[in-house]
Design goal:
Blueprint lengths: L1 E3 L5 E6 L5 H14 L11 H14 L3 E7 L2 E10 L9 E8 L8 H15 L4 E7 L3 H9 L3 E12 L2 E11 L17
Bound molecules: coenzyme A (COA).
Length: 189
């Protein structure tokens, strides 16, 4: 579905393809090298990103994007498992990244809303963003979209010579189909 950005231009949320991988790598690596948005030290190689893409495809995880022009990826968003244990099956940890050249155009808001729609349609129940406590842009984005701050883990990371606090921002989704089957008190597991 097409939506208007902050400048009134029309944009559509797309499913990314392998042709977007280098742009995704560029966006990630800018954040890894210059910010605490990612708790990583080394830029990702093309091989690392190819493995990342293969894992997303194998698990059926969405990689949504917005192009600023034909073939120019401005932003992407994805999710992965929150924790790798079976009972977390209805929870995901998501992330949204906008190329620094295209911030404050509404792309982050569009992609986060698209992720919420996709998660709801997929019968997920809980989305959580794990956000560095100094990341005011991401915290503002999540607050605006209705996510709630549900905890802070102090000094969980270390980067650029200092300790980093990490905040958890969650949204509970109404199940698209009931988790309890009719006539049974047993949850789907
Ligand atoms: C966080 C990020 C995704 C926001 O994307 P964006 O496209 O620039 O944001 P939008 O234009 O859609 O803004 C939506 C809302 O987010 C909030 N927001 C965005 N940037 C903000 C900033 N710099 N400071 C405070 N609030 C901000 C505002 O509430 C904004 O609504 P408004 O424009 O009506 O005030 C973007 O800054 C980014 O990619 N940052 C680096 C990567 C990152 O930190 N990702 C999140 C990892 S958890």
């Amino acid at each position: 579905m097409a939506e208007l950005d902050a400048l009134g231009r029309r944009h559509t949320v797309i499913h990314c393809g392998p042709e977007h991988l280098e742009a995704i790598r560029g966006i990630y690596n800018h954040e890894i090298l210059h910010t605490t948005a990612l708790y990583e030290y080394e830029p990702r190689s093309s091989e690392t990103m190819a493995a990342w893409w293969a894992a997303k495809q194998a698990a059926g995880l969405p990689v949504l994007g917005i192009e600023a022009g034909p073939g120019v990826l401005a932003a992407f968003a994805t999710w992965g498992p929150f924790r790798a244990f079976p009972a977390y099956q209805y929870s995901v940890e998501h992330s949204v990244y906008v190329d620094a050249r295209f911030r404050r155009h509404g792309f982050g808001r569009m992609l986060l809303s698209a992720l919420v729609e996709e998660a709801t349609a997929g019968n997920l129940h809980m989305m959580v963003g794990v956000i560095d406590a100094t990341n005011t842009a991401s915290i503002g984005l999540h607050r605006q979209r209705g996510f709630a701050h549900c905890g802070t883990v102090c000094e969980a990371g270390f980067k650029f010579g200092r300790w980093l606090d990490v905040e958890f921002w969650q949204l509970l989704l109404p199940p698209a189909t009931p988790l309890y089957t009719r006539g049974s008190s047993k949850p789907l597991r």
